[in-house]
Predict the 3D structure of the following.
Amino acid sequence: SITQGQISANYVSLLGERFPSSQYRLINYGINNDTTYNLLRRLWLAVARRPDVVIIMIGTNDVIASLSPVKAAGYVFLKRLLTWPTLSGAYSNLGKIIRRIKDGTTARIALASIPVLGEDFSSKPMHRVVEYNKNLQAIARMESIAYLPVFERQREYLISKDEAARQAYSGSVLPTAQLALKLFFTGASFDSYSREMGYTLLTDGVHMNTTGAALIVDVIGDYLECMLAEDQQAETEL
């Protein structure tokens, strides 16, 4: 849902504003509530497009599922998972995702760290995100692909604000439900709901306000600009 951009400020749309269609045509394959397992099952849709660059940012829902058996059971039911969601399973799925993209395309692949979950760095959910992202770095090294530090950029931004109290992710679905209702029925914005909930980058503890989304754009955008520069250099050398 962070990528799909219906109940989160849409960083893919913001990225499109940074790059004209003559440079990149951006295709958004985000789907609300998807886990790495779901992405693996529908990956053929993206592979069939023969992309030049693939940015993978997946795993927030896997981390949420790992926080409690109730959360995990919810994903099994909601997303029709055939296996119980675990972080070890998520890492395995990511390896398969990367290898399928390599086998089916000539795309340059980048693996982005998942964003902050809540904004309290001492909380269990945030520690779990840190653990997950460390494993993503290891996977990126093993697969010889780029690692994009989305989490690290957001953490740096939050630390720079030097706020004494930051909100932790509570695990409740109520803030997200309230967000959806306000977006679709009252005309509230992501930023106004974020202020109401007391967040800096997030709206409900999971999804992005425009500042959080802009930081994702900064990281991915810098990577894409490097790809463009490399292509232009190669053309010049030819």
Remarks:
- The chain has a mean pLDDT of 95.
- The longest helix spans residues 210-237.
- The radius of gyration is 18 Å.
- The beta strands are 53-56, 108-112, 146-148.
